[in-house]
């Protein structure tokens, strides 16, 4: 704990040197334009991998970056981001080598988290034929990571919060990204949805690209 507190002080000093008055200004407002839904994996820190300081992202993280329609935590975050913060952009970001995705693919039963991972198992079973085409096990893990992002983008677009916002004329854009821990780079999966009724075409186009790739 002593080390953490010391590193915090060093970070504060560094930020204040680079941007004097940053924390005072930050304390006066909370107006991020972007909601980030990512994985809890410690190797995927949202602000750091996109090079943004505190205040720029509204962040929700859970195991395997899922948007589940019975998860009131995630749904509350989405509603607050859209209805109160008025964010303009929503990102679902997965990452290659995700432990949750791997556990589901390998049919592991890691305690209580198994029940949460059942949602990824549903994705795995839905796309079993496509996954069977992958050249090896690691390629299947990565492909399922991508497919999981696509499914969660679809789930996000189908929430009542986004449908209501689009119906009322709000300009919201949803993106699907994936992060490569091996090189630190983000990849746009071309899962960009800009309005109600547009998600299915984007989703099907993504699946068609996946089928032609493997």
Can you describe this structure?
- The protein has about 210 residues and is an alpha/beta fold.
- It is about 50% helix and about 15% strand.
- The chain is built from 10 helices and 5 strands.
- It has a 5-stranded mixed β-sheet.
- Helix 5 packs across helix 6 and helix 8 packs antiparallel against helix 10.
- The termini are far apart.
- The relative contact order is 0.13.
- The mean pLDDT is about 95.
Instruction: Give the CA-CA distance, first to last residue.
Output: 47 Å
- Beta-strand segment tally: 5
Strand percentage: 5-15%
Which class do the helix and strand fractions yield? alpha/beta
Helical proportion?
40-55%
How do the helices and strands follow one another from N- to C-terminus?
Answer: HHEHEHEHHHHHEEH
Q: How many alpha or pi helices?
A: 10
Which word captures the global form? Answer: globular
Query: Strand count, sense and closure of the main sheet?
Result: 5 strands, mixed
List keywords for this structure.
214 residues, alpha/beta, 5-stranded mixed sheet, 10 helices, 51% helix
């Amino acid at each position: 704990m002593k080390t953490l507190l010391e590193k915090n002080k060093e970070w504060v000093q560094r930020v204040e040197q680079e941007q004097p008055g940053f924390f005072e200004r930050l304390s006066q407002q909370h107006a991020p334009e972007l909601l980030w839904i990512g994985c809890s994996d410690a190797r995927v820190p949202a602000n750091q991998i996109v090079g943004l300081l505190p205040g720029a992202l509204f962040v929700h993280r859970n195991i395997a970056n899922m948007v589940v329609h019975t998860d009131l935590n995630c749904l509350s975050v989405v509603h607050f981001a859209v209805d109160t913060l008025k964010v303009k952009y929503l990102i679902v970001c997965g990452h290659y080598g995700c432990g949750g995705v791997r556990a589901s693919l390998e049919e592991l039963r890691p305690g209580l988290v198994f029940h949460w991972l059942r949602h990824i198992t549903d994705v795995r079973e839905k796309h079993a034929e496509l996954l069977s085409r992958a050249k090896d096990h690691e390629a299947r893990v990565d492909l399922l990571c991508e497919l999981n992002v696509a499914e969660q983008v679809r789930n996000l677009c189908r929430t009542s919060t986004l449908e209501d916002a689009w119906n009322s004329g709000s300009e919201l854009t949803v993106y699907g990204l994936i992060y490569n821990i091996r090189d630190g780079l983000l990849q746009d999966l071309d899962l960009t949805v800009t309005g109600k009724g547009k998600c299915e075409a984007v989703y099907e186009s993504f699946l068609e690209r996946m089928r032609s790739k493997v």
